Q: What sequence folds into this?
């Protein structure tokens, strides 16, 4: 299997590459080649099969066409301008997230074959007000440009799949917690910061109240969703090719309790409460509770608990020991 | 008020122009100018205000820019490649229905003002399977390229409106019955044919069984939805700017009974049953029952009955008398 990954230098891309390289298998068959693409050149994993690493622009037709020249069997499309930037730079968000993805779809169509296309969508396709749990039949009414771009691509992916132009599936990812790396300024960043920083022995700021809830999945599970999607029988999925991924709905208070349980109350004490009205206002419109029945039936599985999420971070990012 | 109508030569465009010209008022203010645009030059109504009629291509940027040069206060966007053609010519459907509409949105944005934009969407944004009645929170999962194009534009219209780039609303029109004119070969054409032709004293073919239901509105009510949308306070509508329009759910059997009631059983006897498996299969995936609560609350009103629909056709198209 020749695997193409767009967005290979990002956090989820790297986790996906790790997962694929650990087994050497995807969709039940051996990996024979990889093409890794991002705005910066992705790093090359140490594997026995040939790997091509490429930097380019998703909104540039010749860059995108070149990726399809060897007809990859599976295309993982994770590349995107993130929510905050798409909101600030309206043109860039549409150019990359919407038009760039259409270029990819058209470049596949030009090659006249039918690869599996796995697209990372987001729960940002949903907008308040919400029912108590968002089911698989609930409307997409995004309140950000990023959410609109993701929702439009979901629709087009269904159309290209229905027309037999490729075999696509869109996975609506929960908020990924705990994101490794440095604290970032994304409005959702604190969900990771308040766990990652204390686990490394550092202070973290909590800008919202403790009753705020979020729908979350670990980086490990998130990469697992993508790998699982590569092996699914999509004919059984039917025409509705966008699936909300299973996560767990956890409040900030529950996150802090779990941190104390797993790592000790001295770590939990490193969280400083500094309510920030701007972030409180952004977060109150985010969806935090779902009933992802279709995905569960198709074998996608959530983390068992926030404790599991914390332990998998200690395991994967801290070499099994607290910092 | 300067009114721009794209798709002015089509059936709904002409009904809308008639309705506007009958009162000379839109959105509570006097009409001072009209620009009428379509692929063929629209005919010029006899009115005291200046009317510009233009033929052009919605997917041509300079054609679209020219329409915005006088900053129309209200933009009615009814132009589209119809469902059957968008399904057969994939590129043309996306180029006109999706990209052409984006050109329009961008041309408005370039002028840096905030007109009312009224876009005709369709119940084709929904795809089977359906609940017993489709509510305002039900997902868009179209099963045609046309439906995908309409659903994507709904999402973008919400985004442009949220960003203050214009003040938009999308109306999901029911199947329009009775379409005036000649029988056409659209899969949905028979819903009009089986009433219009017998009312004119001619035979009509019924290609489906009598228990098939459809969600329908008369041309008169459909034009009324557009006029009503021009005067709405959209701030009260909120972020979800796509509204399913009220219609009535009527079976073919009920249509034939009403025809006999209004026009006599000899007219109903002009319908010849010739089941066509291809059309039966297409129609079985169409939505036919809705709960359009939001639109009703905003003052959009359905026809009272299929009898009213038949009578309004006799009134408007046959000069009050059976053919």
A:
């Amino acid at each position: 299997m020749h695997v193409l990954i767009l967005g290979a230098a990002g956090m989820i891309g790297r986790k996906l590459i790790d997962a694929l390289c650990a087994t050497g298998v995807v969709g039940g068959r051996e990996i024979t080649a990889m093409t890794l693409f991002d705005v910066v050149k992705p790093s090359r994993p140490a594997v026995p099969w040939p790997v091509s690493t490429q930097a380019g622009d998703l909104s540039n037709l010749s860059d995108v066409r070149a990726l399809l020249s060897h007809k990859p069997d599976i295309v993982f499309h994770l590349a995107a301008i993130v929510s905050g930037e798409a909101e600030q730079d309206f043109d860039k968000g549409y150019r990359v997230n919407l038009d760039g993805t259409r270029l990819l779809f058209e470049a596949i169509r030009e090659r006249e074959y039918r690869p599996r296309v796995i697209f990372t969508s987001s729960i940002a396709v949903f907008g308040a007000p919400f029912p108590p749990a968002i089911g698989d039949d609930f409307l997409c009414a995004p309140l950000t440009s990023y959410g609109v771009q993701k929702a439009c691509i979901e629709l087009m992916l269904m159309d290209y799949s229905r027309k037999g132009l490729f075999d696509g599936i869109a996975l609506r990812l929960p908020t990924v917690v705990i994101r490794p790396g440095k604290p970032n300024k994304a409005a959702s960043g604190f969900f990771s910061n308040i766990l990652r920083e204390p686990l490394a022995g550092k202070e973290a700021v909590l800008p919202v109240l403790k009753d705020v809830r979020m729908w979350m999945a670990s980086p490990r599970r998130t990469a697992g969703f993508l790998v699982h999607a590569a092996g699914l029988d999509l004919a059984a999925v039917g025409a509705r090719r966008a699936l909300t991924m299973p996560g767990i709905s956890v409040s900030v208070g529950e996150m802090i309790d779990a941190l104390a349980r797993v790592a000790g109350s001295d770590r939990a004490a490193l969280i400083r409460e500094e309510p920030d009205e701007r972030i409180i206002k952004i977060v109150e419109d985010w969806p935090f509770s779902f009933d992802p029945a279709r995905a569960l039936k198709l074998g996608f599985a959530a983390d068992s608990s926030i404790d599991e999420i914390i332990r998998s971070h200690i395991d994967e990012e801290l070499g099994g020991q607290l910092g």
